[in-house]
Amino acid sequence: MKINFNLLSITVSVTLLVSCSQSQQNDKQDVASQVTKTKDAISISLESIIEESIENNATEMMQKKEVPVLCYHRIEDGRNDAYSVSPDMFISHLKALSDSGYNSILPDELYDYLKHNNPLPDKPFMITFDDSRKEHITIAAPELEKQNFRGAFFIMTVTNNKKNYLTGDEIAQLAKNGHTVGLHSWDHVMVTKYTDSTFWKQQVLDPQEKLEDMIGKPIEYWAYPNGVYNRQAATELDRHFKLSFILMAKRDSLYPLQTIRRMIVPTMTPDKLIKSMRSNFN
Length: 282
Ligand SMILES: [Zn+2]
Hints:
Elements: H1 5-24, H2 28-53, H3 58-63, E1 69-72, E2 74-75, E3 84-85, H4 87-99, E4 103-104, H5 107-116, E5 124-130, H6 135-146, E6 152-155, H7 168-176, E7 180-183, H8 197-215, E8 221-223, H9 231-237, E9 243-245, E10 263-264, H10 270-280
Parallel strand pairs: 1-5, 1-10, 2-3, 4-5, 5-6, 6-7, 8-9
Helix pairs in contact: 1-2, 4-6, 4-10
Residues 130-131, 184, 188, 225 line the site of zinc ion (ZN).
């Protein structure tokens, strides 16, 4: 863990100086209230400075308690596969999470927790959606918002505006509603096939720029197509994304931020979901 002590001491002395000169000009009552306010301000700014100044290394990040991350794909009736849940089942999953006291966090919060030790709410979890399906805006987002949850939506840009998939406006709406928009490649080619810079441009850089234009914010998170990862890709992705998400494979001890584990949630009872979250994450 690295802490920037210079920054810390400069900020504290500046705050003290300002508070001293102001106090001398006030009467006694004002001085008392000023001192209290200044003490509060110092402790708040100290806390945030300490948090931002901590920089965990890979080993320290690996030792931190994992946050359960869920991964959904299709939300529709009549399919019986590992990548689908019915709308009713999805809604009962969210209810069970809320009833069990879980609080959703977003990738920014997970990154600050892993890298800078920022605190998380009680019982944190993250919910993510892959493949840009239309039901992510018609069902997932509104149901999440009803429970005061927010999610991360990983977009493959080749499907934009196609039937059964999200439009550009809908993706922008997700971001506006407080959800995180991340990238899931251009057309779902796995990173192990990115053999030269043409692939990186087509699958990562161009779609990242397109999404950034669409939502007016940086795109800082990536979900590996098919969850497939290798060290070479992680090294490159680390230059473009704060976090990248795999599935239930092992994390890379050199690149824990580029190998965040997620559990695919197929049709399972809400009870089983809560139990699996506890057993699947350290
Ligand atoms: Zn996918």
